Amino acid sequence: MLNLIIKDIVIQKRMIPFTLLYVVVFIILTAGNYNKGSVYIIGVTVAFMFSLGAIQYDEKCKADNIIASLPLKRKDIIISRYLGTIFFTAASTLFITIFVWLINFINIKSINISAMNINDIKIITITTLVMMSVIIPFNLKFGINKAKIITFALYFTFFTIALNIYNNVNEESIRTIYLFFIKNGLFLAILLFAVSFVCSIFIYENKDFV
Amino acid sequence: MMKKIIGGNMMEYTLEINNLSKKYKDFILDDVCFNLEKGYIMGFIGPNGAGKSTVIRLIMNLVKRNSGEIKLFGLDNLKHEREVKQRIGFVYDENYYYEELTIDAMKKIVAPFYKEWNENTFNKYLKDFDLNKKSKIKTLSKGMKMKFSLAMALSHGAELIIMDEPTAGLDPVFRSELLDITHFLIQDENKSIFFSTHITTDLEKVADYITFINKGKIVFSKSKDEIMDSYFIVKGDKEILDRDIKSEFLNVRENSFGFEALTDDIKKVKSIIKENIIIEKASLEDIMVYTVRR
Question: Which residue out of B98, B107, B114 would a mutagenesis test of the A interface target, given it has the greatest number of A Cβ atoms within 10 Å?
Answer without folding.
Answer: B98
